[in-house]
Fold:
Amino acid sequence: MNNEELRKAIKQANKKKKLLYHYYQWYAQTNKKKASWLDDLYEFPWVPCADGIFRKPIECKVAATDEEKKGKHTILSDDSIEFFVNEVKLVFGVNIPDDDEARIEYWKTHLASNYFSEFLKTLKRLQENGKAQSMLADILDVKWKIRKQNKSAPLRRFLDEPTDDYGGFFGHWLNLESKIREFFQAAGYQPESLITEDLAKEYVDSVAAEDNEEITPDIFKNLRNANSIICETIYDFTGYSFYTYNRQWITIIPDEHYYVQLSHDPLSMFEEMKHRILHPNQFPSKIETIRDLYDISLQFELIDNHADIRSDMSKNDLKNVNMLRVIKSLKLENVAIV
Structure:
């Protein structure tokens, strides 16, 4: 749209309907409804598209940067699109693929719950074309919003009876719309009832990927719950992620030894080994489970039994550390000691 006079006219035009009436003098009353010319702009098929068809704005797509314009992509210039969006608040259609398989790939990284009706249409076509079962794993990776959380998760992380959502990492299967659940039921899919070892590992890996130095109490609680599930069946932790005392995440590798403690040590007397001591707050709360880690697993050892204290700081602080351990174990942190 290069006509500056037309742009100026659109900017100056009334965007709401007005009622004019006369009672001794003329009065104008603004209506909440859009002006007729704006209604036409929304509802009339005037936007030229790459396939030679004129469509309503909402029926068009806006190509991404450097994307080839084809099919329903509008051939309006970027400058024109920007003008209509900013000045007229015109809404163009979403640039989702036309091909159903490509749509599923698109929704793995874009919230499918924002395109609910289109998603249902896509599932219906896949079902009618006999592709529902062959594409089931891909469909389960589609992102969906978790109710009452500003979070999303792939559909495979919506569980039948989750005891905890881990801060929005897991969703509840029954919160999904019934038509979506019916599609999966027809395809022979049954959601996991509870958090499995694989899903627990996925949660820990997601926290590790964020690489935050400080772990909040809520996240430590989730990590403890996740690792409680993992430790029920796993004793070879190669490839698993853990948080260390030097505030870094590590991945367990073969033929390496790492150290655990039975309780959190706020004044670590093993300062020089912090990078290999795993923070106990991420482990199950049962002492017996932690003992199993270093008794059965060949990768973990109890730090008190195996570590040599070499640094001067550690030697000098030993009495203070032991005293603080006693205070912490008795939950006397708030008691003034004279």
User: Anything to note?
Assistant: The chain has three domains: 4-87, 100-186, 236-329. Confidence is low (pLDDT under 50) at residues 309-316.
